[in-house]
Request: fold
Amino acid sequence: MGLPKANRLKQRQDFDRVYQSGKRRRATGLHLVVLRQPLTGDSVEVLPIQVGISISKKVSKRAVVRNRIKRQLKAIVRQFLPRLEGGLRMVILVRSEALTYNYGQFLQELEQLLKKAEVLHGD
Reply:
């Protein structure tokens, strides 16, 4: 099962905004770019967390491989959603080193990146 619609980052301009203004954290197989959304005026409304996954054809020419990695990452992000602070926009970049990763390795590396970016709460 994928991410809920409210938690998806889809528009090219949204990806670009995160790339330009976000803070970057790097690991071997994954890179994370995080942009905190400022609260608007008097509203106390917390914006939903939006996540995008970017995986280039340079990583693998085969769409089957790229889609499998995206499905695994979406499932992992869904597990972390309750522990993330609100109003975040994140892009997860997959590097070619991640081709050999299994689900557990993705889980461990993404959790480390989220902790490095100081957006993951609780244990």
